[in-house]
Amino acid sequence: MLRFQSVAEDLPGPEWRSLYDDHWPAYRHWFLSEGIAERPTYALGLAKLRRYMPELLPTYEALCDLAGGGDLAARFLSLYRPPAYLTGCSQAVWLGARPMLVRNYDYSPALCEGLLLLSRWNGRAVLASVDCVWGALDGINEAGLAVSLTFGGRKVVGDGFGIPIVLRYILEFCDSAAQAGEVLQRVPVHMAYNVTALDRDGRFMTAFVAPDRATRVHQLPIAANHQGSIEWYKYARATATLERERFLYFRLREPGMTAERFVSCFLRPPLYTTAYKRGFGTLYTAIYRPDRCAVRYLWPDGDWCQSIADFREGVRHQRFDVAPEATAL
Fold this sequence. Notes:
Layout lengths: L1 E7 L5 H18 L10 H11 L4 H10 L4 H8 L11 E5 L5 E8 L7 E5 L6 E6 L3 E7 L4 E6 L11 H11 L3 H10 L6 E6 L5 E6 L6 E3 L3 E2 L9 H7 L1 H12 L6 H7 L15 E9 L4 E6 L2 E6 L6 E5 L11
Parallel strand pairs: 1-4
Antiparallel strand pairs: 1-15, 2-3, 2-11, 3-12, 4-5, 5-6, 6-7, 7-8, 8-9, 9-10, 12-13, 13-14
Helix pairs in contact: 2-4
């Protein structure tokens, strides 16, 4: 059973502190899983934020204060060179009369925060699915820019930020898909990810980011878990990334395809998966509508609609068919 919660808090305060208190023990264990010597110092993380995402510094400092001002928490919150982590995920842009970004988030229920947060940390409304207590897995801002991520299917780990903080930065300060692409070309990311962005004007892009090569920005409406070619064959087979990409490709080009039918494809194989024990089960389908600054979360047995203009705080409990393994972050 996974608890999904929607919370509105304009500036970091008691709601965020409660989230931090709930998740910090697990994140602390994950952050130290390779030993403290493997994690960058507070000074290095701060310097990297100041160099690449200086507009985030006031929020970062406020969050560090709320977390108690400790060195370890400040290192974690910079999200610079964190431990490696893997997700699955599929995403696609529907370019009909009302464009939308549709994505499946595939991960272990035991490791998902399940928080949809409406905030105005930097004077702009941002509605985002939270990860690492202030990063974003996917979301939309009041300019009508929607973004989401998938894992890029490569083993490489290097210098750079965890991708959730980069998506947070994009949602806080970008207005268009083009601006999102520019951010992803200059901000280093520590693992391979595919980020798709769609803006209110119907412009879109998918960026292939990695720590060991330059970001490639493409006019691709779909992304699974590889970056053009397969480089990690075992992972590709386990997650059926090629099958999912091809499925999306042909659904987008299928004669007579409608927006409703296209969304329904995300609720069945090969896009929808129950591989929860391996950490790649589908936890939710999200449909982002830039024209409405809205999101609809979808499950086989129900949905949950939210928007920046009509946001409702609440809780939803979602049961999954297969119990997840007890694994650490």
